[in-house]
Design brief:
Number of helices: 18
Shape: globular
Helix content: over 70%
Distance between the termini: 70 Å
Number of strands: 0
Radius of gyration: 21 Å
Largest sheet: none
Length: 349
């Protein structure tokens, strides 16, 4: 009989193998506190409280190494789950309703950000692959693009970490600055969501920035950002091809491994689109759609807690000024270009 029951030691041993559990529980605890505290903070939403709470804990206390896998798990798996579930609140008609102007906005901003990033990096004399990585992170999807493209262009681990921290620094600034600036400029929800979706980098911060503004802006920012993220695939292929060509002196046309190409395909976008398609066909009951999107909203709060827990002011201070200067100039320039195009195309007017 005893052998049929799980003994306490067996349970503890099984839990010890779930390395992501401590960090997940920490992000969950911060999210629960933030959701409860938001009832009493008026205009300060739970996503912002979770971010601030995570930053405070990460920089006031020495986080144990045991929570790091869980923080990465939240930033990766939980975020993608939330994005897929957000599809239950959208329809194909809403996606198509963004229009050709918004799709054109995405394409222009991606091309300009990549080209300008390379130009500024060369002007600032940034060494190695850092300029390419900062440009890719700003153009597509922040840390995800940097981590995907870094190995394809032979970037060193230090260069990848440097670029991620630079991009991430301005993600945090964007989350804090964009919503009040959008209200000051009296931007509509669609206009603000389009702005956040094209000018902010990491998916987690884009979604959070949009939802801090309002739910409609959050939905718009999510659609625009996922459309932009799709461009990671051709960018990765081109970057890898160019690097391989330079490595061989252009003697022969290099072939990229299909495995490398498939590795950068953002498959969670397909889940998001599939759920939106099912919702468009009326196959998702309204109550279920509401429950799924509400749960996705809470997962986003957890993601912002993990974003905060990943901020290390000491590392940012040690990076030096030149990459930060390039990142700041690129971020400000893209914000201005994106907002100007939104105004010119009357997006969300």
């Amino acid at each position: 009989m005893e052998s049929e029951l799980a003994r306490p030691t067996d349970v503890r041993a099984a839990l010890s193998r779930i390395t992501w559990l401590p960090g997940l529980l920490l992000a969950l605890a911060i999210a629960v506190v933030a959701r409860f505290a938001a009832r009493f903070t008026g205009a300060i939403p739970d996503v912002l409280l979770a971010l601030i709470g995570g930053i405070a804990i990460a920089n006031l206390f020495r986080l144990p190494a045991a929570v790091r896998p869980g923080i990465r798990f939240v930033l990766n798996k939980v975020l993608r789950t939330a994005i897929i579930l957000l599809g239950a609140g959208l329809t194909v008609a809403a996606i198509i309703g963004l229009g050709a102007a918004t799709l054109g906005l995405v394409g222009v901003c991606v091309c300009v950000a990549m080209g300008l990033g390379l130009l500024l990096a060369r002007f600032a004399r940034l060494t190695g692959a850092i300029g390419t990585l900062i440009g890719a992170g700003t153009a597509i999807c922040g840390g995800t693009a940097i981590l995907a493209i870094g190995p394809l262009i032979g970037a060193a681990d230090e260069e990848i970490a440097y670029a991620v921290t630079t991009i991430f620094t301005f993600n945090i600034i964007a989350l804090l600055v964009y919503p009040p600036l959008g209200h000051a400029l009296h931007l509509s929800s669609v206009a603000f969501g389009s702005w956040a979706g094209t000018a902010v980098n990491d998916t987690s911060v884009v979604v959070a920035t949009g939802y801090v503004y309002d739910p409609t802006a959050g939905a718009t920012a999510t659609i625009v950002k996922l459309t932009r993220t799709l461009l990671l695939v051709p960018l990765a292929v081109i970057a890898g091809w160019v690097h391989a060509s330079r490595a061989t002196g252009g003697a022969s046309a290099p072939r990229l491994s299909p495995r490398r190409i498939l590795a950068v395909v953002p498959w969670f976008i397909l889940g998001f689109a599939a759920l939106a398609l099912l919702n468009s066909m009326g196959l998702v009951p309204p109550d279920a759609a509401h429950a799924l999107t509400a749960f996705a909203g809470f997962l986003i709060v957890m993601v912002l807690a993990a974003v905060g827990l990943n901020v290390d002011f000491a590392k940012i201070a040690r990076m030096g000024l030149r990459p930060l200067a390039v990142g700041l100039l690129l971020a400000v320039t893209m914000a201005a270009i994106s907002l100007s195009l939104i105004t010119a195309f009357h997006i969300g007017a």
